[in-house]
Automatic annotation (TrEMBL):
Family of this protein: Belongs to the FliQ/MopD/SpaQ family.
Secretion signal, residue range per the UniProt entry: none
Pfam families: Bac_export_3
Keyword terms: Bacterial flagellum, Cell membrane, Cell projection, Cilium, Flagellum, Hydrolase, Membrane, Transmembrane, Transmembrane helix
Principal subcellular localisation of the protein: membrane
Subcellular location: Cell membrane; Bacterial flagellum basal body
Lineage: Bacteria, Pseudomonadati, Pseudomonadota, Alphaproteobacteria, Sphingomonadales
Transmembrane segments: 12-35, 55-74
Name assigned to this protein: Flagellar biosynthetic protein FliQ
Membrane topology per record: Multi-pass membrane protein
GO MF annotations, alphabetized: hydrolase activity
Cited function: Role in flagellar biosynthesis.
Domain of life: Bacteria
Species the sequence originates in: Sphingomonas canadensis
Length: 89
């Protein structure tokens, strides 16, 4: 085993992490940005006003993209387990 093998596994893990978290984080970020702009324009500084819509957007994103995320993580886990014999050599 050389360092390149472990670097490639780490690189793939970071890429899978980015692909799995982006469908949840990006809509929540956009909802927070839009609500923050509305709050700034209307001078309403209520903290709970931003929490509930972001929670709803996050839940909706999980419903839509949850299957894709589980499939992505399952494929990555399967590929890691298939690589175990290569490590033993």
């Amino acid at each position: 085993m050389d360092a390149e093998y472990f670097l490639s596994v780490g690189r793939e893990a970071i890429w899978v992490l980015a692909l799995a978290s982006a469908p949840i984080v990006i809509p929540a970020l956009l909802a927070g940005l839009i609500l923050g702009m509305v709050q700034a324009a209307t001078s309403i500084q209520e903290q709970t006003l931003t929490f509930v819509p972001k929670l709803i957007v996050t839940g909706f994103s999980l419903v839509i993209f949850g299957g894709m995320i589980i499939g992505l993580l399952g494929d990555f886990t399967t590929s890691i387990f298939e690589r175990i014999p290569e490590i033993v050599r």
